[in-house]
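User: Hello! My lab partner asked me to get a predicted holo structure for this protein. The small molecule is manganese (II) ion, SMILES included with the sequence. Please write out the structure tokens.
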Amino acid sequence: MRVAVLCDVHGNLPALEAVLAELDREPVDEVVSGGDLVWGPFPSECLELLRARGSRFVTGNCERLVLDADGDHTWALERLDAGQRAAVAAWPGMIELDVDGLGRVVVCHGSPRSNEEILTAATPEDVVAEALTGVKADVVVCGHTHHQFDRRVAGMRLIGAGSVGVPYEGEAGAFWALLGPDVELRRTRYEVEAAAARLRATCCPGRLEELLRSSLLEPVPREEAIAHFERQAGRDGGRAAEA
Ligand SMILES: [Mn+2]
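Assistant: Hello! Below are the structure tokens for the protein in complex with manganese (II) ion.
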């Protein structure tokens, strides 16, 4: 069994289309959306593309912001019909899968206990272990921090799937994870200048221009993004300075 985990699409339809085109060439048994799908320029279109694939969905923190019509997120909510809103509201915080070669896999957004938990490539091991307390899994796949990593902590393998739509990898592309029989951290290339024009044309409000620039057009270095997330979590850069 092979599973594609697509996190943090953030309504970036051209990026999602590029990944799904790759999955047409290399089919998988399951597609799992790891949250933060529907805040961004093409919420309805991204949702429908994944529904058409029979995807399973985990909720992210941005799904709650959209459903609560929080500030700029109101725009995305207005693009979802009643059926779509009900579907999004029902998404679980995590899902479990059995993947040959990997064992019991948990897919979540921030961590199994919170879709706002910040786990990075540099998060100290004791912090990760505490976040995973009580979790019964061989592999935990998370998103939310928009960069890829593959760590072994507390007897488990912790995977950062990266972000399809708004990656902080120091290079452009759509980043995701392929599970089974091992874990492959994947990057799908696409035309980001053309994509940016399509995304801008939606007139999606909020930080779109800043997100496009920092993730795709002039990508900030990965280490800078990791240090930013660690500071945001109150951890003063974690191990990023040593990385
Ligand atoms: Mn998130």
